[in-house]
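Q: Start with the shorter request: fold the first protein.
A: Done. Sequence, then structure:
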Amino acid sequence: MRNKRFWNIKIHIMILLALCLILSLLLWQGNKVVFWMALPVVLVFGLLTILRLRKLRRQIGELLTVQAQRLKSGDREALEQFPIPAIALSGRREILWYNGLFRDEVLGQHDLAGDSFDCITTTKLDDFCRPEGVQLTYTGKIYRVSGMHTKDGETGIYTLYFTDITQLARDASLYHMTRPAVMLVMMDNYSDIVQQARESEKSRIIGAIDSTLEDFIGRMTTSFIKRYDGDKFLMVVEERHLEKIIEGRFSILDEIRKIETNSGVSVTLSIGVGRGEETLAQSELSASQALDMALGRGGDQAAVKTRTQYEFYGGVSKGVEKRTKVKSRIVANALSELIETADHVLVMGHKFGDLDCIGASVGMATAIRSIGKQAEVVVDRDKNLAKILIEMVTKDGNNNLFVDPEEARFSITPETLLIICDTHTPNLVESLEVYERCKTVVVIDHHRKMVNHIDNAVIFYHEPYASSASEMVTELIQYMGDNCRISSVVAQALLSGIMLDTRNFVLKTGVRTFEAAAYLRRIGADTIVVRKLFASTLDSYQRKTRIVNAAQIYKSCAVAESDFSSDDMRIVAPQAADELLGIDGVDGSFVLYEAGGCINISARSMGAINVQLIMEKLGGGGHHTMAGAQIRNVEMEKAKQMLFESIDDYFEAKN
């Protein structure tokens, strides 16, 4: 009887009585004699049924009273007088008892005695016994439900306490949705566009930018925008509006890009957003850091910074080249001062250094030596991709230029200066121990900025629009003083780095790239010698063609996997990825291979696809046309499937 649900029985019986009464009324239309005979029977039967239901309810109440005896009398009295709603349940989720407040405030005078607690919630009873309890919504109200479990019988008794937090939850939601977030907006190429435009054209462009931004912010009634510099704006928006902006993936980026200019160059924005901070000052600081991150990743995108992470939106355009070299001169002067005060300089690149990494490091180290300071290049001679270049530089009279990481760490002093080239993340440097031991660090890199970047650098020279680290070092050398000189062999090392990252001056090549190459050519760089550094053996060429032959096309991307392993896969795979870009209809290429106990991916594009965004979803990075990733603890097929999903996400976000 305990498992019967009284109210369900009552409803069913009432329905049957109603049907009987309706049938009796229908008899009135057919045979009135039969109707008068049936009507008393229905009325008597209905009266007896109602009396029986009342008796049945009393019996159920008596039964529940007996069940409630399982609660100690002192407990029942305490719970009855308890100032908040309380309910007692069996381990089988049967409602044994509840106090008057629970009946009046939670149930609203309804009677659920003997019913299952599932009619209120299906949450596990043990979850309510945790210190934080459970937030529960019932009949339009929000409760914080906590409880305790008393051992009694097979399953024991659960006593739950319902605290009404409806108003508190609404106030908390309103507080969260009205929290101010700071947005810092910067025009990426504002100065270049305005400088080239006539006065009338300049006014039109500025007016179009202002009106587009004002229309965008005008859709949010509780937000405002202020220009605090020629190309910079400050916006303050509430969290509820920011969520809509994020859902629209910062559509203002596309709206600004549609502004027409006579030069044919699109206007682009970089946006930094600080949200979730305790104060406006902290939000402004987070927004500034996010803006730096957006600019460091090439601009034309939005970076949202919370207390724990970054989120990025946009980034479909290439970085905008800055034609002025003022920054290079300022950095060169500051770097010269650091070199002058250091007793020893170490130059280090990334793991498995390539021609750009080694070329930039060699160029910087030899330039420092030419002005009278001791400098070495930290490199693992066995684990790098530029062994031919290292041998060529060594034969040029630089026998002691290269030093192993193990040897370098013993020469570090508090006055040692470390210059990191071609990377800006601690986990990618040649030696993490050397980096951690050096107190003064300088970073020179051109890759799009990563979240976990080196944050203790005295000079962080980062230009995502530059073709290569070798180009950046070449510019710095020209401003480091008249005594700074490099040999023709070192010039060839720098030129090889530029040629590698531009794929022989095809991609990411700006005016300053050719100026740097021209400077290197003037001081003796031989392009034929440089070209020989890219030569490969017949076996390597055959392995490359084997990978290309196994490629498949997926959404304008060529994807190939290596079913073999070799010592030169870190060279062969990028070459195969470059080769795949020559196929008609291929905008991006990805080569997967196994090395170092993980699945490596080498990604390339001609600019139509941002391979960095695709690789970032897999834990990697790089820049717009050249990126990579390493995926650990997965099989090749799983890694390939993850790559396909990342490509799908990229095209979905792009559309």
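Q: Next, the second protein, separately.
A: Sequence, then structure:
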Amino acid sequence: MNEKHIEKIAFELDISPQQVKATAHLLEQDATVPFIARYRKEVTGSLDEVKITSIRDRMNQLAELDRRREAILKSLTEHNRLTDELKEKIEAAKTIAVLEDIYLPYRPKRRTRATMAREKGLEPLASLIFEQKDINLFEEATAFIDQEKGIKTEEEALAGARDIIAEWINEDQDTRKQMRSLFAKKGVIISKVIQNMEEQGIKYRDYFDWEESVTTVPSHRMLAMRRGEKEGFLVMDIVPPEEDALALLESLFVKDGESDSSIEVKKAVHDSYKRLLKNAMETEIRIETKKRADEEAIKVFADNVKELLLASPLGQKNVLAIDPGFRTGCKVVCLDRQGKLVNTDTIYPLTSKRSKDESAEKIRTLCERFLIEAVAIGNGTGGRETETFIRGLNLGQDIQIVMVNESGASVYSASLTAREEFPDEDVTVRGSVSIGRRLMDPLAELVKIDPKSIGVGQYQHDVDQGALRCKLDDVIISCVNGVGVEVNTASKELLTYVSGLGPHLARNIIKYRDENGSFSSKESIKKVSRLGDKAFEQAAGFLRIRNGVQPLDASAVHPESYPIVYTMASDLGCKVEDLMENSDLRKKIDKESYITEKVGLPTLNDVVEELARPGRDPRKRFETFSFAKGIEKIEDIKPGMKIPGVVTNVTAFGAFVDIGVHQDGLVHISQLSNHFIKDPKKVVKVNDNIEVTVLDVDIERGRISLSMKDDPYTISNDTMSARKTIPKKNVEKKGSKKSRSFSNNPFIDALRNKKEV
């Protein structure tokens, strides 16, 4: 454990070094983030999941930096080029970029123009020119003419010397630092359409002639331009104004005056920028802007997925689920209260009147036979028409009718998970089951589907897939453990995300359950093959066993705290069940008297709170939502209508809303609120039920513009809109010539320190 890293992370996160050290120690012992946040509050000082995750990720980043540092030191040692001064610089480097700048002059490289010039013996001439003394440059260059080496004229000698100087400038650490800063602060993204690709790339027409500052470009525009470039429709550059870059370099390397040597150095400066530095810095800024755009897009995606996973569950009900369809009919399944498939059928309510009557009779019979308490209808093609048909049957007020977002259901139905679960059923049955279960418990069903298939992302296929997977795993793990998992009914996929388990132990739990029946207590989970003490410690608090032999097993109280609860009950002369049922008894608990070296008030507060509502579900209560009657297709909506809708996706530029016409409408960020907002998530979240006003309907392109404003036709001064950002053309020449530490080149050092070599 690196003490410098601990101090650095503590400073960055504004927490104590002891908190970082304790958390890092737990992480090194393979403790999971949810376990640390919930059951090790005394150790970490009650750090939440966000801070613990930040510590974990920063530790990994710094470890990667150390690995690169060691690799560079090893390379320099092997090539006998490591000096004490160089080693000190490398060990002091705080970022990968600085490390690479230090290493650049020593990195093994292909033969360059500067390399060939050195081979011709022109480095002394380059050094002489770089000093910029008052010399007869023509005479000095003449001395280097050598027919055998291929130097035929004075100009060829000077050109070779300039190549060497250009490489010195490119490899200078401080120069790269200042140039990197210029690109970051004044870089401009310039996007243009490739000639003759206007028609094929019409979807990128907003970026056919676009300029925007690096500092202001939002994630979605950056990723859109990169995608257009990748697909061959756009060409993109990210550079500052060239005159600013050249002015900066001239201020660093060209002495005052117009001597022959200074003119040669100026030429070398221009060549170094255009041929070397510009490309290197543009590559870096591309990587940095991509990383920044990825982080924002991944955060948007993760936030949306979290809202979906934590959507309100209907709960354990007998459900009739329908996957709508016209030509092939509607696939109908009946599920019992545990989500078990008990019946399948097909109806054709959207064809002839006879088929409609037969379908109605069949639905009524199924509802009566299986004691149906809710009907789930997929919101895909034919969904609204099927909903109208079902509502017209007047099944009774006791039966809820709910439209369910079926995004990803088709992906699940064709997956290995679905085939293992329903080997004898076709994909339409599996899809219907998924729709019904998603109504009963969204979390339990959605963990079976790749989040990228759910349709709540923003350029999710363009971002770093490793970073996306890691972030989504964190979100799923947090949601699953935050809600808790009933071990006797959970699927393998749900158990996989329980703290400390994973896919192998999840399979073993299912296998044990199938062979031996339900678990009677958490203690009996230890009988599962390969589930050791460490895994049990991590998982036990997040597992639930309802109606078991141990009442606390239905709660989030960790088994390690059971003795405390029994001591509390004994001190009050009652049973544990009494503590869980009687609030007056709980008020008599003096928590301070149960504090020990390992157990403090944070844990005791959690224990007592859990006794009040054992195994409580943190998700909101389920509320039935209905779309507007008579609006089933895009042709039914008109500008000015006020209609209900459900938020299906939140992006950086607005929110998409399902209004029941098979095509989501967009509430642009400028129409989300009466006031200026920068972040749509501050106003809406996925699954929010809202009312919107229709602004515009483009039937041909399938686009619907919506508004949440009280008066959507009033344009305020602070309305946010996409606009071109024109950078300033005048840049101060801020290059300083004070003494600095350089790239071990004595001529650059001498120039900057104004000394003579």
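Q: Describe the second briefly.
A: Residues 634-707 form a domain with the OB fold (Dihydrolipoamide Acetyltransferase, E2P) fold (CATH 2.40.50.140). The radius of gyration is 34 Å.
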